[in-house]
Design brief:
With about 250 residues, the chain is an alpha/beta fold. The chain folds into two domains: about 140 residues, 3-Layer(aba) Sandwich (D-Maltodextrin-Binding Protein, domain 2); about 100 residues, D-Maltodextrin-Binding Protein, domain 2. The chain has a five-stranded mixed beta sheet with strand order 2-1-3-10-4, with helices on both faces. Helix 2 links the parallel strand 1 and strand 2. Helix 1 crosses helix 9, helix 2 packs antiparallel against helix 10 and helix 3 runs parallel beside helix 4. It is globular and about 55 Å long.
Length: about 250
């Protein structure tokens, strides 16, 4: 019954302004692993509702800090739940609106011209002189990468070779430019990057990257943020997220 009610609410929210060009916007702070996926979601959402999403992509920790300091994001899409809990605790966002929208996955990505590892522990080989990850202090994908390397018992062997990016997209950029020999990054970024190879990490090697979102602020723009959240639960929204390598909430097992 709850699922039926949720579906009806989603449809009602979307139908209420479908086909209209309202000139209205909704400001969204989103984890950088979402950039390509959310840009596509945003285009479809705008076509359906007339509301234009204005995205800021960064690490979840940096976005959470901005929200705590009063930055005007009305939807926060984090790469994990801890930063959503943080902005709720700061009373900047609506706890009732928080929900998981996807689970992310990690890969080792090597650029064209670099021989990729056959297994993750090959990263200890001397040919991998530099390895990029997102900063574990404020980027969930970086934290998960470090956890995985620690669980495999190779972190101490490679930690001096680690190059940290402010976000997972910057860690990928280092690899794309050839500044590093490999990057441990989001599958969603590897999928849209040509000229390289990926090796997927087993999810049991790190804490789940259960990505949550939450509506922040109040008023009309917060209502638009709820419409964007609702759109992610529609067939169109779910199909887009799946294409970029995200697991949907019901596929977590």
């Amino acid at each position: 019954m709850i699922a039926v009610v949720r579906a009806c609410v989603c449809l009602a929210l979307l139908a209420s302004c479908s086909g209209r060009s309202s000139g209205k916007v909704v400001r969204i702070g989103a984890a950088s692993d979402l950039q390509k996926a959310f840009e596509e979601v945003g285009k479809e959402f705008q076509a359906r509702t007339g509301i234009a999403p204005e995205f800021t992509f960064s690490s979840s920790g940096l976005l959470a800090k901005q929200i705590e300091n009063g930055e005007g994001y009305f939807l926060f899409a984090s790469a994990d739940k801890s930063y959503v809990e943080r902005v709720i605790k700061a009373e900047r966002c609506d706890a009732a609106s928080a929900r998981m929208y996807a689970r992310g996955r990690l890969v080792v990505w090597t650029p064209q011209g670099k021989t990729p590892p056959r297994k993750i522990t090959d990263l200890t080989e001397e040919r991998f002189k530099k390895i990029s990850i997102a900063n574990p202090d404020h980027a969930p994908y970086g934290r998960a990468a470090r956890q995985a390397m620690q669980k495999l018992g190779i972190w101490d062997a490679i930690k001096d070779r680690i190059v940290e990016g402010d976000s997972v997209s910057q860690a990928m950029l280092f690899a794309r430019k050839g500044d590093v020999d490999a990057a441990i990054v989001a599958l969603s970024l590897a999928i849209v990057t040509s000229g390289g190879e990926s090796l997927t990490l087993d999810e049991s090697l790190h804490d789940p990257l259960d990505q949550q979102l939450v509506v922040c602020g109040a008023g009309e723009e917060a209502d638009r943020a709820r419409q964007f959240s609702a759109f992610l639960e529609t067939r169109e929204g779910r199909e887009i997220m799946s294409r970029y390598g995200f697991k949907l909430p019901e596929d977590r097992k």
